[in-house]
Automatic annotation (TrEMBL):
Binding site for S-adenosyl-L-methionine: 75, 80, 126-127, 141
GO cellular component, one term: cytosol
Keywords associated with the record: Cytoplasm, Methyltransferase, rRNA processing, S-adenosyl-L-methionine, Transferase
Organism of this sequence: Sulfuricaulis limicola
The family this protein is said to belong to: Belongs to the methyltransferase superfamily. RNA methyltransferase RsmG family.
Protein name: Ribosomal RNA small subunit methyltransferase G
InterPro entries: rRNA_ssu_MeTfrase_G, SAM-dependent_MTases_sf
Entry GO MF terms: rRNA (guanine-N7-)-methyltransferase activity
């Protein structure tokens, strides 16, 4: 109940309205993550109360910037931010990409237990991933530097698509290293219960 109250309060402060079944599944996902984490060390965050702001609310902070129908979560790890976003946006189709077998096993099991039909897990390195269709939104959270991420995944961006890169402090040096060919915009994010700087970089290819 304590976790639900913390999650509901955070969603309210962020202006995110989710139906009760989605909130329940977010909490179920948290329980799964905590359980698997004891054996598989999926995330450094151990305390479920800290997982609410640092994993759930942080993931959901990019909701206003998603556009679809196809979304790629690059380096999804334990399904973050892809699984919370897929629960919040059942109208979009998510691909959760990671090369780590242990983490993709967890993400696959989580999708199964949560009954998530609008997400799929792929175990592959991003630079070797060549799906039949490209993606409208590509999200990276804690995945390499911005220039390295763009170099590895540019081939996956559909015409008119864009990258959402989740960072901590303002990534001045990384942005300075981005070569021509992208229009960049940086948004400061406020995550309830998280006393740390969070920024999102929106990168749109211009050619």
């Amino acid at each position: 109940m304590k976790l639900e109250k913390r999650l509901q309060q955070g969603l309210h402060e962020m202006g995110v309205a989710l139906p009760p079944p989605a909130v329940e599944k977010l909490l179920n996902f948290l329980q799964l993550l905590e359980k698997w984490n004891q054996t598989y060390n999926l995330t450094a965050v151990r305390d479920p109360e800290q997982m609410v702001p640092r994993h759930l609310l942080d993931s959901l902070s990019v909701l206003p910037y998603l556009h679809g129908p196809r979304v790629l979560d690059i380096g999804t790890g334990a399904g973050l931010p892809g699984i919370p976003l897929a629960l919040a946006r059942p109208d979009l189709q998510f691909t959760l990409l990671d090369s780590n077998a242990k983490k993709t096993r967890f993400a696959t099991q989580a999708l199964h237990e949560l009954g998530l039909k609008n997400a799929a897990v792929v175990q592959e390195r991003v630079e070797k991933f060549h799906p039949a269709e490209k993606f409208d939104t590509l999200i990276a959270r804690a995945f390499a530097s911005i220039p390295d991420m763009l170099a590895a995944s540019r081939h996956l961006c559909a015409p008119g698509g864009r990258f959402l890169v989740m960072k901590g402090v303002f990534p001045q040096e990384e942005l300075a290293a981005v070569t021509d060919g992208y229009r960049a915009e940086v948004k400061a994010l406020t995550i309830p219960g998280l006393d740390a700087a969070r920024h999102m970089v929106i990168l749109a290819p211009v050619n």
